[in-house]
Structures
1.
Amino acid sequence: MNVENPLLKLESYKVPAVEKEIRLSDFVPGIFKTIRSKKGMKNAIKKGLVKVNGDRGYTADYIRGGEIIELYQSQNQIKRPVIELQLEVVYEDDHLAIVNKPAGIVVSGNKKWTLQNALENNLAKSSQDDALQRPEPIHRLDYATSGAVLIGKTSQAVTALNKLFEERKVEKTYHAVTIGVMNERGIVKTKVDNKSAETEYMLLHKLLSPRFTFLNLTEIKARSGRRHQIRIHMSEIGNPILGDLDYGKKGLKLKGKGLFLHASSLQFRHPISRTNLIIRLPLPKKFKKLFPEEWINES
């Protein structure tokens, strides 16, 4: 094994008898739990992470039966800083976790101060063979948005969770404070960045406001995951989110309190245990300063 590029073996597969020879790139999709897609396996082969009888495999190699095919994971990663930031871990097992992202931090990226760089100090390392050296966020929330972020702790979990998102099998619920006169419920389907997008909302409670006419406690479900989708859609129907400096109404932009948008719930089928998970987070303190406690507790 190359010491300069250490590899960790994830899985091994012995090829049974085959009727006719087949290219490696056509044979391997679906034989490993860690990576199931054809695209994912092609990328693994190109990166030298697939071996046939102990030698590096290539996409054009032919499989004739009886071979041992092994899938590896590179242990070399770009060095990223680890930051000290205490996170609320609302769910964790050996495969995945859900953390409550604070407002005012990006999920990932090239900056030092990211949620991803805080995960290593907040989550237990997985005991699985395909455990990631560093946990990986599956989706993103805006810098100013707080709430539930799903984290993968193993290669298999990351692949499976990404597929759930692609197939829209993760239900995301948000709570927001919007301003203005608002309908009881509705669905917004206008495009975002020239891509289809759908946002469903329901008005839970409203308060008269001298400055904003009404402050509305609103439940929102994002049926797609476009960047700034909820903020854009709420602004388009005339009910921008309180504290939205980008999409708010001129003269009605609340400054210094942050964005009143919180990812309050995730619901999905656990890709490993196959159990249904429903994770709910309480609303932030700033919501509680605007509305009666009983309204907040109902949400």
2.
Amino acid sequence: MKAKTKTLIEMRNDAADIFYDGIKAVDPSAAIGKYCKLKNNQFIAGSRTYDLSRFKRVFVIGAGKATAPMASAIEGLLGNIVSGGAINVKYGYREQLRRIKLIEAGHPIPDKNGQIGANYIFNIAHSATEDDLVICLISGGGSALLPLPAPGLSLQDKQDAIRQFLSCGATIHEINTIRKHVSLIKGGQLARTAYPATLVSLLLSDVVGDDVDVIASGPTVPDSSTFEDCMNIIEKYDIQDKLPKTIISRIKSGISGQIPETPKSGDPIFQKTHNFITGSNIDAVIAGKQKAESLGYNALILSSLIEGDTTQVAQVHSAIAKEILKTGNPVPPPACILSGGETTVKLVGKGLGGRNQEFALASAIEIEGYENIVILSAGTDGTDGPTDAAGAISDTHTLKKATAVGVNAVHSLMDNDSYHFFKAIGDLFITGPTNTNVMDLRLLLVN
């Protein structure tokens, strides 16, 4: 039987439904519920069991956009067993907690609140003894939300450095390499602080490849990067003269051996530290695929590991959509192509936007003249760049709508002004805080 042809409005509604099913699959509270159990005074995390009678105190610490519901789930599981703790979350990403202090702080640029909270968390970890259990909850955004500058550096130094790296097109792996080496808490240093306590770290991944030493800059994980790597990254993007002199001085001191490296694999401090990934981008992508199939689409997962320049990635995705219309490959219409990961934007203009809005805008330009294509790109955390939108939705009529209201797609793309472009035509995709974060979800529907 021939599949029923859907209108663009129906396809756009389908795209939103597919996205929200992806979000449900990475609900942080549900992830903790699936991964952690309490049975006969035994705390079970994944394949490991911890006898709670062995511990005098149980602390809960952590940071990230999804950490509040994770903490709420741990409180619900352990109740009064939790002695106390603290977490840092992005403003607005909160839950009602009973025994764990919640501090709202700045993201993606760290702020004073974040530093206060990071110091509080650091002190809790430092107070833990070998008779204590520390449960650390980490999710995307944790890097910005745990700003504890290394000696000789100020919060302003870190803020200025992060702004440079966010605007030059550096990947999250590269940015977090720098973060680890200008911090007192990242790159395994939180584990060093908590030692000799038993440390259980539960992570919701927001990085391509789920590298545990990159998620939130790996505060509880052996660091595979070095000061030498930091300098190579700085030279790659030619920003040495744009960074605070104190940052450059620290990295050079580390290279010369005047400052000790971050703790590496094999360091005895990690003998009592166990790291577990409770959810990641592929979970959201698979759930989206299942929803798309239930709506009648032939669904295909392209990859959950996509990174690189946003405009170039948009060109490739758009080419696949056009191929489906022309030849029915790689899947025949009605088709849904899904991908995840995290692209980067090199800022050359003065506009406002984010990588997902820019992806949707670049895609709209590529599919002009074609019919029956809908593209949705959005951050699973509900945030895209410094805007109130998660992303944007575009289709084969986007450029016509823009012309009708007097905005130019090419000019907006060149000025990195995707936010105002989509606001003008009413196609921003706004979800509000989702309280989760596993990078981005991109959907191409072809009918």
3.
Amino acid sequence: MTLQKLQSFLEDHVAGLHAKGVAKGDEKIIVGLRPAEDGFSERYLLDGYGDRAFLRMNSNSYLGLSLHPRVIEAEARAAELFGTGPGAVRFISGTYAQHIELEGELAEFHGRESAMVMSAAYATVIGVLPQLITRDTLVVSDALNHNCIINAIRLSQPADKVVYRHLDLKELDAALAKASGKVKRVCVVTDGVFSMRGDYAPLAEIAAICERHEPAFAEGIMTVVDDSHGVGAFGANGRGTEEQTGGRADILIGTLGKAFGVNGGYVVADAAMIDYLRETSPTYIYSNPITPAEAAAAAESIRILEGAEGRQRLTNLSQRSDQLRTGLTGLGYETIAGDHPIVPIMIRDTEKTSALVAHLFENNILVTGLNYPVVPKGDEEIRLQVSAVHTEGDVGFFLDALRSFH
């Protein structure tokens, strides 16, 4: 057996993506790092580009903790004790003290009874939603929800699905009213912070709408929020969209791989829900967890965030995000107002987006261009992501490069 009969199909498909300008293309391979100096943050070296050093404006490491000495030390110490891998899934022999400690830290951090750590946030969403959605469940989902939510809903096979226009709470309200008495259970699912735009769901208002309609459904309405881009980067104390909006999800999903600077995903909820998910979620039961070393590093990141240094990093993150938004507006670029360190440049054209990405790369800056079908037609953009380790000089360097684009 070979793949020869499929080869032309595979090649044509990839060629078609390139022709449309939507292919991801070759990956940039990081091979080195230059430390921060002279008022600038660290710079990254790429395979094939010699000694050119790049400013990274497309990293999810919002707090810059992946290079923090305490986080590195915590991971190294645990790796020396327990090795580089867990060696088994959790229910066999893959649960270590570091996993339990981290789950306790996450539950306390989010004010929940219990937490469950998994291999990635994507795997968490895929592992959680299908366990909550039955053949007698209506799913109501924001139109700009992340791909992991979309695929999890497809796997779930609900009784019905309604996708409401982005942040249109009138449509959400109408969908719940229309479903009254037709299903037993409703699952309202949304991103906390929307990864392409940096805007966010008004969780308190969503909760109020759900509470008003809940008596009409025998098994109630549950709210599920994936706040992977919010946790650690949003809210006065870094507790994400819940803190920013004053709302609260019934089930909150987050990541350890963005603001916390490590790897993995997690879900927090009441104890009964987490106990249920430990017994039913296939991506938890049948997949290895993050390593004990990663768990130790993530717990250390949470401790840093909760201390004085964490507050200072959040302050710097906010200041640099404001500086970037103000600079973009001053140069005549369209962006989306907000407080989150995702700062999009709305180009609204595929060719222009690609041209600006190339120009910034030539000026030693790494950015991410988002074209259709990743974003809707007319919403093409460059997604900039600010980090707490970015300096005033870094943002100025970026704006100078943007100023030279014609």
4.
Amino acid sequence: MSIEIKIPSVGESVREAVLAEWFKQDGDTVRKDDPLFVIETDKVTLEVVAEADGVLKILVAAGETVAIGAVVGALEPAGAAATAPEKPKAEAPPKPEKTLAPEPAAPAAKAPAMTSAPVRPADGIPLAPSVRRLIAEKNLDASKIQGTGPGGRLSKGDVLIYLEKAPAGIPDAPAVPAGQPPSAAMEARKPMTPIRKRIAERLLESKQSTAMLTTFNEIDMARAMEIRSLYKDAFAKRHGVSLGFMSFFVKACVEALKEVPEINAFIDGSDIVYHHYQHIGVAVGTPRGLVVPVIRHVERMSFAQVEKAIVDYVAKIKDNRLELADLEGGTFTVSNGGVYGSLLSTPILNMPQSGILGMHKIEKRPVVIDDQIVIRPMMYVALSYDHRIVDGKGAVTFLKRVKEFVENPERMALEV
């Protein structure tokens, strides 16, 4: 008896999903817990595994939008696998192969074209296989490239230099099919994924529905870097995770939110809802878009527990195991654009939250300390906030407190 493969429920508010990719082919034998396919909703990407051993029968192709609970495939009993392969053998007639038997003569007819391919049209000098392969990959005209090797031979270096000097790195446009406008060959049109659509909607909603303002400061990371360097080995040995800078900032934000509670609140109609807990969202970039898993009750957690929570979420994202519940309930967000090399940016609010902290890259800069110019590892930080609920004084105070805590992490332990 076959087992139906259905699109699982990922939350009450989610009605449909896109079957993004099948990991197996129709007719493949699968084992229990083998990954079968991945689905995308407007909030999460989830990997679905096999419930039992069997032979996979695919009913819905990748790329289709399907309702939650829809049947997209089946697992046939293993016994069916023994008979299934026999049909393709019977259906694959040997005659077409026999009719193709004379085909070996075709390569002989094409041989002149193959021998001419490795040769530069301009001077008839044969091209090395590596050069020929690179020219084919980049769709180049070998006659336009100046060779600097013996006898004018074209080297791989000549091709690379030609590519570097070419405008936009694309010296030769791809061939345009007959009847097709030239511009069409230079463009590609792909539908937005559900996650990307949702990101676009939420960003636009945030800009239109809030009075967003951003304030900036800079943090001297020297002490945090020193503590991390001193204790990273002992920390990793004891807790099984690395000590990163994210935990410094998350814990600093928790302490600052206690002092400026309106940044940890949100507007609901004509009311302001204050939270007496800190659920911190940590923005994580993925190939399919940005997701913000939430670390709950960070006010009760140690540095090690924060780092473990981040590592666990990264693993879930990588394995497509992130659930809708992992993304809900955040009261404040921390985003680290520094991992991508960003020096300064303005983060956009993650609604309905009233604040988001943007971290950036650490860069050595000259600063004045005790009337002396010294070189320090500095980081710009940005706080975007909803001005409807947060005043400028509160925003500046919050950012100043984060700066004080990160520059002197001992203050968080001493609660001063």
